[in-house]
């Protein structure tokens, strides 16, 4: 017998996908420039910075991956750029300051002499200039002590020796800074000041032997106008010609200071040129008696009771302290 009741409704079977699990979304592509930025940071910092900025721009437009790589490349790149820049700056400073100092020390400045330019260091121990050969003067005339090889002013118990070349720019700096206080110590009887005018910078006066002629002029002044010797020395430096020029003429040298006796004839005769050059040879070859050094290696060289002044040429306080330490003043 056929039943007229409807069959019960059957629940639908659960959905079974064709595959075991729903697919995962695909990972975004890593930006190529970001990779390049990170890698190049270890080799070329500037490339890392440039590619890092380009990578971040592309990532913002395309939603690619690699933002962290790009940032890391940028950071490392900037660190490298800053480090390289500092290294270059330090190298330039080193080349400009330390290397010349080392060369100065190697060249003989280790003996305690002030810093010198190359032109203020004697090149050879040979005689300089073309002074006429003549018998050297002897004895003492005015402030010139020919047998001892110096010009001397003052009668103090403490002795200050100054070795200089009339064309030496560092000697001019020392004279302009400390000449006044040395003159004052001479006047008050504290020191005996002995001047040693050298001639080795003849080689930078275009063949006119300026250092020899100026040294001879200073000696002419010492013999004829000893009371005006320090004034003449100051005038020599105040009117100092530049290196690699012909320097002052004899007429100009004779007219530097108004003095009772004219030194023109003394200059014209070439007197004391040979003596000035002989003093230079002795100073450069040595010995230097009763001194910390055996010979002069550059100018200016200043000795106080035989001790070498190694301080600043343009620091009057430091020089005064050195004089005081040497029982001067």
Automatic annotation (TrEMBL):
It comes from the Bacteria. It holds the Pfam family DUF4190. Residues 158-312 form the Thioredoxin-like fold domain. InterPro entries: DUF4190 (IPR025241), Thioredoxin-like_fold (IPR012336), Thioredoxin-like_sf (IPR036249). Residues 9-22 have a biased composition (Pro residues). SUPFAM superfamilies: Thioredoxin-like. It comes from Cryobacterium sinapicolor. This is DUF4190 domain-containing protein. Keywords: Membrane, Transmembrane, Transmembrane helix. Gene3D superfamilies: Glutaredoxin. Residues 34-86 form the DUF4190 domain. Residues 1-22, 116-137 are annotated as: Disordered. The chain crosses the membrane at residues 33-56, 68-96.
């Amino acid at each position: 017998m056929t039943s007229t009741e409807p069959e019960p409704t059957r629940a639908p079977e659960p959905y079974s996908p064709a595959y075991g699990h729903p697919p995962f979304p695909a990972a975004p592509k890593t930006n190529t420039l970001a990779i390049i930025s990170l890698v190049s940071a270890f080799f070329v910092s500037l490339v890392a910075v440039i590619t890092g900025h380009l990578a971040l721009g592309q990532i913002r437009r395309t939603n690619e991956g690699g933002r962290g790589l790009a940032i890391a490349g940028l950071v490392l790149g900037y660190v490298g750029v800053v480090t390289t820049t500092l290294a270059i700056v330090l190298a330039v400073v080193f080349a400009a300051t330390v290397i010349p100092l080392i060369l100065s020390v190697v060249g003989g400045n280790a003996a305690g002499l002030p810093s010198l330019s190359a032109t203020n260091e004697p090149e050879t121990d040979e005689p300089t200039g073309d002074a006429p050969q003549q018998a050297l003067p002897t004895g003492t005339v005015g402030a010139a002590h020919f047998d001892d090889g110096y010009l001397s002013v003052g009668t103090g118990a403490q002795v200050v020796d100054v070795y200089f070349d009339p064309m030496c720019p560092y000697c001019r700096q020392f004279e302009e800074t400390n000449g006044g206080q040395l003159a004052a110590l001479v006047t008050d009887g504290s020191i005996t000041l002995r001047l040693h005018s050298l001639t080795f910078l003849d080689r930078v006066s275009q063949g006119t032997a300026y250092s020899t002629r100026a040294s001879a002029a200073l000696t002419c002044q010492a013999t004829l106008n000893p009371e005006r010797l320090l004034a003449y020395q100051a005038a020599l430096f105040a009117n100092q010609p530049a290196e690699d020029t012909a320097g002052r003429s004899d007429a100009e040298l004779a007219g530097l200071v108004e003095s009772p006796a004219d030194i023109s004839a003394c200059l014209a005769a070439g007197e004391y040129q040979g003596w000035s050059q002989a003093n230079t040879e002795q100073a450069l070859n040595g010995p230097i008696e009763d001194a910390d050094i055996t010979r002069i290696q550059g100018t200016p060289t200043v000795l106080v009771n035989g001790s070498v002044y190694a301080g600043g040429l343009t620091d009057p306080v430091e020089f005064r302290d050195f004089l005081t330490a040497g029982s001067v003043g």
